[in-house]
Amino acid sequence: MTFLLWSGAVGSWLFIVTFLLDGWTRPGYRPVRDPVSALALGSRGWLQGANFILCGLAITAGAVALAGAVDSVLLALVVAVFGLALVASGVFPMDAMRGYPPGTPDETPTEYSRRHTWHDRAGMVVFGAIPVAAIIATSVLPEIGWKWYSGLTAAAAGAGFLVFGQAWEDDHPRAGLVQRATIVVGWTWLGLLFAHAAR
């Protein structure tokens, strides 16, 4: 079970490292504006697609062991849903738009493909699950430090989700930056939760 917990931790952190490095080195990609999901498009898109799927599977596997480690089936279930939604985000990539990949019109389509619709639905689950998991953690983890850290994470990740949603709708030039900050906050907490449970 310890191996599964560490798999969840590594999956959480590897997701961050992969999209940060790939985003900053991808030709034509603008990490401050473009969402992480756009990295699954273009000639190097397979890398982010694999990042979604493999890290999602690792987190889901970790969730299996989390139930016993923190004595909360509910927390483990929410984390498993999060992991599976990450996998779905990789299986159903978003549509090309807003200038990426290079050569794509710099505008938002009036109609979306079915796969993009499923990607959006999976994304809502992903970003909604982290604050919910963190709120649950405040009541099931006995350590006062973890209660505070989880509560702050829930507030920050929830606010980040809402701000990013509005920034995306407005095509704000820093929408990608807001999303990245939200992901780093939430996924870092999740990885540390797995590591804490493993110890």
Automatic annotation (TrEMBL):
<feature type="transmembrane region" description="Helical">
    <location>
        <begin position="6"/>
        <end position="24"/>
    </location>
</feature>
<dbReference type="Pfam" id="PF06197">
    <property type="entry name" value="DUF998"/>
</dbReference>
<keyword id="KW-0472">Membrane</keyword>
<feature type="transmembrane region" description="Helical">
    <location>
        <begin position="148"/>
        <end position="165"/>
    </location>
</feature>
<feature type="transmembrane region" description="Helical">
    <location>
        <begin position="45"/>
        <end position="67"/>
    </location>
</feature>
<keyword id="KW-0812">Transmembrane</keyword>
<dbReference type="InterPro" id="IPR009339">
    <property type="entry name" value="DUF998"/>
</dbReference>
<feature type="transmembrane region" description="Helical">
    <location>
        <begin position="73"/>
        <end position="92"/>
    </location>
</feature>
<keyword id="KW-1133">Transmembrane helix</keyword>
<feature type="transmembrane region" description="Helical">
    <location>
        <begin position="177"/>
        <end position="198"/>
    </location>
</feature>
<protein>
    <submittedName>
        <fullName>DUF998 domain-containing protein</fullName>
    </submittedName>
</protein>
<feature type="transmembrane region" description="Helical">
    <location>
        <begin position="122"/>
        <end position="142"/>
    </location>
</feature>
